[in-house]
Design brief:
With 131 residues, the chain is an alpha/beta fold. It contains five helices and five strands, in the order βαβαβαβαβα.
C-alpha cells in the first residue's frame, strides 16, 4: 500500500517515512504542496498523510484541489494546528482524519490502518460459494 507523505520538516518527515515503512507501507515523501499536487496527478496512492504548513501551496489548498477534482484518496491531516476551528475546517474540506503534533507513531499507523479498512469496505452484496 502506497502512502503519499507531504511534510516539509526534514526530521519529522524522515521519522514518519521510516515508521510507516516499518509497518509495511511504501512511502513517497514530498516536501511541498505543489510537488504533492503533481505527485497525485501522476500517480495513485492508497492514502495521504498531509501537513498543513507547507511551502508553495498550503496543505488545505492541496486538500481542496484534490477533493475538487473528485479524488477520494483517504487523507489524514498531521499538523501542529490544534484549534477546534482548524480541525473543523480540515475535516469539512475533505480530510478523513486529523491528528495534532506531537503524536505517537503507533497512533498514526493505527489511524492509517483504520482509514484503509474503511476506504476498502464495500457495502455491496456479499456472495459466497462453497463451504
Amino acid at each position: 500500500m502506497r502512502i503519499l507523505l507531504v511534510e516539509d520538516d526534514t526530521l519529522l518527515g524522515d521519522a514518519l517515512q521510516v515508521g510507516l515503512r516499518e509497518q509495511g507501507f511504501a512511502v513517497e515523501w514530498i516536501r511541498d504542496g505543489a510537488a504533492g499536487e503533481a505527485a497525485l496527478a501522476s500517480d495513485e496512492f492508497t492514502a495521504i498523510v498531509l501537513d498543513l504548513g507547507l511551502p508553495r501551496m498550503s496543505g488545505l489548498e492541496l486538500l481542496q484541489r484534490v477533493r475538487n477534482r473528485g479524488d477520494h484518496t483517504p487523507v489524514i491531516i498531521l499538523t501542529a494546528r490544534e484549534a477546534v476551528d482548524d480541525r473543523v475546517r480540515g475535516l469539512d474540506l475533505g480530510a478523513d482524519d486529523y491528528l495534532v503534533k506531537p503524536f505517537a507513531m503507533p497512533e498514526l499507523t493505527a489511524r492509517v490502518r483504520a482509514l484503509l479498512r474503511r476506504s476498502q469496505a464495500h457495502g455491496g452484496p456479499r456472495i459466497a460459494h462453497g463451504p
